[in-house]
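Moderator note: this is an archived Q&A kept for reference. The question asked for a predicted structure of one protein chain; the sequence and the answer are reproduced below.
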Amino acid sequence: MTTPGRRRPYPRVRASPVAARVLAVAVLLAAGCDPAPSEPAPPVAAPLSLPWQVVELPVPPGAPGRVMLRDVTFCPGHWFAVGAVADVKGGTRPAAWSSPDAVTWSALPIEAKTYYGDQNILATVACRDGRMAAVGAKVGGAHGNPRTSSWYQTPAGALREVTAPFELYGGPQAINVTRLHAGPAGWLITGNRMSGAAAWLSPDAATFAIKERAPGLASSAAGETWAFDGTPADDGWLIVGGWLPSGRIDRDVAGWRSVDGAVWTPVPAAEPTSDYEELQRVVTADVPVALGVRGGKFGAWRLESGSWRPAGTFGTVPPGGKAGVRSLSGALLAATTDGSAYSVWSSSDGGRKWLPVVMPEPTVIGGEGAVAVAAGAGHWVVAVDNARDALIYLTETPG
């Protein structure tokens, strides 16, 4: 074990006479040669340091417990956040908050309709026309699988659980549900089934219909599809994820477009590589911009001329599968994890260059930790759950 702050003692090694003569010749040869000019190292961009205001979310009415914060989003005039309240015995109940300014937050009334809905941890939130919807889950049942529920906000302001058949999200064909999205065409949930990437669509978030084995989106004999995220696109939807061609062990970045959710058109990588690559989050900036993994780094891709074209890279992705992009806002503010801590990044040029954003305190991952980002009304919001406190960090959008 090495004592902190001290050098490790290395054993001394005595050079042989032959090695000494070889070294002397090498030194003489080097002295008679002009060294090749070295190119200067590219300048390292300074981290973006901003003044942050810290807001603590209130504990919703009901049994006491610790607030768990999982996601945050913005609609004109409205901010929404979702998560849960955890008691000392490990029980949870769903929780959601709204705010007009990201400073003053109020808990929304919760109307759970099922046994597992009453225990949901709300993981993803979206909004349109001033109202929000959410998707959450609670692990349970004989096989310990997630029991997923969707939720919508009533005209009275409460968040109400949608009762749905178990196999809509679960059952023998289920793999996972990833993200919820809102747009002009309605609402989209992305996820995966045994048949590959899948989508759930709704005009009002009150009832969802699954689109699995959809042509162009599902896996086929040519390869396997996997969905991570989605965004409104034109008159329909764009889903992003990964494509694993048959016979390969590494994914390529991929996307799929659809107007009606029934038939999808693949959006391939412009330059497939031998690195493991996948798109994990997507937003629409000047064009759709997606973030994901590119070998040992995080990477950005821009959807241009019908394919995903690589843009900037940043950070590091250690081996082990725990690293990833956790959140991305339309202002190209992103939260990533390297498997041990979260980082926040920003791009002001469409994803080509990324700067680290300095947060007031390091956010180390715990079993219950999470970070999400959102932008709107001239502000950035970073929602942090450090497994002790649920905090909203607020700052003005940099000029």
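Archived answer notes: DSSP finds one helix and 31 strands in the chain.
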